[in-house]
Amino acid sequence: VSIIDVYKHQDKVIEAVIQMRKDRFPIELHMVGGSYQPALDKIQYDIDANSTFIKYHGFQPYDSLHKFYKSADLFIFASSCENMPNILIEAMASGLPIASSDKGPMKEFLLDGGSYFDPCDSSSIEDCLITMINNPVSRKEKALKAIGYASQYNWNKCAKETFTFLEQIG
């Protein structure tokens, strides 16, 4: 779940998934979100050529995203440039095990609630996914930690702290 864009590195995720399929891992990749056209153009051939296991669902309304989270076994977040990774926090709250970019600030939010890879290196992504797939106990433990970390973020708390701060300086 994320816009298709250059800094999201879906091209490297696709390369990793294609290699995993060649190595006989029965993995599917489902991508959900709008797109920056040049980034989509870059991956469209691989999507079309591997349509039996790579699916691009395009933009989906926010209120339907829970269906994608619920039907997934694992969440991949390969962004190398975020400020406040709301999509990562949504995935954390969903209870899915998470394979995440090792670039900041993802580690600041996910902490030890996920597994990390270099988003610019498809081999690193592949190694991370294989390790996660082969370690169901670790996946579950990390997913439970991620749920706990995600619970720290909520809009009511944010609003209250913001207004408290504004009252103190005003």
Write up this protein:
By secondary structure, the chain is mainly alpha-helical. It is built from eight helices and five strands. The protein has helices at residues 10-22, 37-49, 65-71, 86-94, 106-110, 122-133, 136-150, 155-169, and strands spanning 29-31, 54-56, 75-77, 98-101, 115-117. It has a three-stranded parallel sheet with strand order 3-4-5, sandwiched between helices. The radius of gyration is 17 Å and the shape is globular. It starts with 9 loop residues before the first helix and ends with a helix.
Write the layout of secondary structure elements.
Layout: H1 10-22, E1 29-31, H2 37-49, E2 54-56, H3 65-71, E3 75-77, H4 86-94, E4 98-101, H5 106-110, E5 115-117, H6 122-133, H7 136-150, H8 155-169
Parallel strand pairs: 1-2, 3-4, 4-5
Question: Which tags fit this structure?
Answer:
170 residues, mainly alpha, 3-stranded parallel beta sheet, two-stranded parallel ribbon, 5 strands, 9% strand, globular
